[in-house]
Design goal:
Helices cover 33% and strands 14% of the residues. The chain contains ten helices and seven strands.
Amino acid sequence: MNSPISWVGGKKALREEVVQHFPFHYENYIEVFGGGGWVLFYKQKRRDFEVYNDANGLLVNLYRCIQSRRKVKRLKKLLQYSLNSREEFNRMRLALQLHLPMSDVRRAAYFYQVIRYSYSSGLMSFASQPHDIRSDFPLIDQATARLAEVVIENADFQKLIRHYDRKASLFYCDPPYHNSEKFYHNIGGFTERDHIRLRDTLLSIEGKFLLSYNDDAFIRNLYRHEKVHMIELKRLHNMRQRFEGGAEFPELLIANYDLNDPSRLLMGQTTLFQPNGGLLIS
């Protein structure tokens, strides 16, 4: 299924490749930088224990309200009266910025509308695009069912990984991309020190990790390690597509297990086709 929200850096275009490269066996699935949750919503529900985490408290609050059958009814009731207008967009955005007192459900409703009505879901400027938000309700209902048994966390990635680290744990990490950290200023930013801290944390775990990153020299050098495998991928560059048809964005999948292991195809959540464009560069 799809995520109920679009999100900057979301993995809608890459989610199939990501899931195809999951290891054959894991019992705990932890999405460390959850964002829009595109991978979590795409992967088949198994018997594994699932965790969604994000450092953005507004995003986590929204998903906790969607998860609750009681709160999601109130959320949809508030959303059905929403106005797609610049004035309302600016009012709600300012209320969230100023941390004005309001219920968690109203805060979730405001944040959902700011996401939905902002340009490219960037939360900054009004998109001026027609949209009936009530048409989103079936997908919100699907998300409520999918999140029923998911643990939703709002923690620093290092503390989260250490807390859930087991031999049978799989950590999927989609951190802010290198040199794109400015888009995450609303949660305190993400620095090169954080990229290094993430690397050091992942290389010390008992479990497995799969990491998606932009392909640049800093990231390649950071994960140049005998136990680390990398695969090069390309996807359409959504922003440049508007001006340059066919523009692609190079990405990396990085893991502490063999990404070319054919046993992955035994999993019930993969397609019948081998992933394309993979090149082992460990």
